[in-house]
Amino acid sequence: MAEQTNCPKCGADLPANATKGRKIKAPKNGVGTTDESEAICKYLRRPAEGLMIAGIVNILCIIPFVVLMGTQLLSNSSLLRSRRLDLQGAMLSLLVTIVGAVIVYGVMRMKELENRKLAVIARVLAVLPVTPGCVLGVPFGVWALITLTKPEVTKAFADNADG
């Protein structure tokens, strides 16, 4: 009796030679097979970890914001104004903190193969040389750019969005 194999979509019995030596993939629910999805996620893991650290460094900029705003509110010190540590510095640290939060959120979506646009935005923000996290953001951002433009990664994001 000839060997049988099952159709991955409908489960119908097929002769083993129907695949002509090719491996049959499971139907696409999310991203191709589970193995493909795990391989892409593993491929994205290292640049995502570096971008996550860069984002967290930027989020830590909330500390100077709190200190500067607290000092500004609690005392109307001329020392702070003379050293230009005023509302502008506090707003800059708040802006960097918001950038860090967007980076972290984008990286979380990237690790789940969701929202490729947000992942690219997070990568661009990490590379900006105006944040303290850019020390890690530049090398890991470039690495993420290279990774996110690979056809198999782009396809994985598209397949996951369809599913």
Give a quick precis of the structure.
The protein is mainly alpha-helical and 163 residues long. Helix content is 66%, strand content 4%.
Give structural notes.
It is a single chain. The chain is elongated. About 10% of the residues have low confidence. It is 66% helix and 4% strand. By secondary structure, the protein is mainly α. A hairpin with a 6-residue loop joins strand 1 and strand 2.
Entry keywords:
mainly alpha; 7 helices; 2 strands; elongated; 4% strand; 163 residues; single chain; two-stranded antiparallel ribbon
What is the average of the pLDDT values?
A: 75
What overall geometry do the principal axes of the alpha carbons give?
A: elongated
N-C termini distance: 38 Å
Low-pLDDT residue intervals, each spanning 5 or more residues: 17-32
Order of adjacent strands in the largest pleated sheet: 1-2
Helix run count: 7
Helix content range: 55-70%
Describe the main β-sheet briefly.
Answer: 2 strands, antiparallel
Succession of helices and strands: EEHHHHHHH
Please tally the β strands and state the result.
2
Structural class: mainly alpha
Strand content: under 5%
As a whole number of angstroms, the C-alpha radius of gyration is 24 Å
Map the helices and strands.
Blueprint (H helix, E strand, L loop, with lengths): L3 E3 L6 E3 L18 H26 L2 H13 L3 H5 L4 H25 L4 H12 L6 H15 L2 H12 L1
Helix pairs in contact: 1-4, 1-6, 2-4, 4-5, 5-6
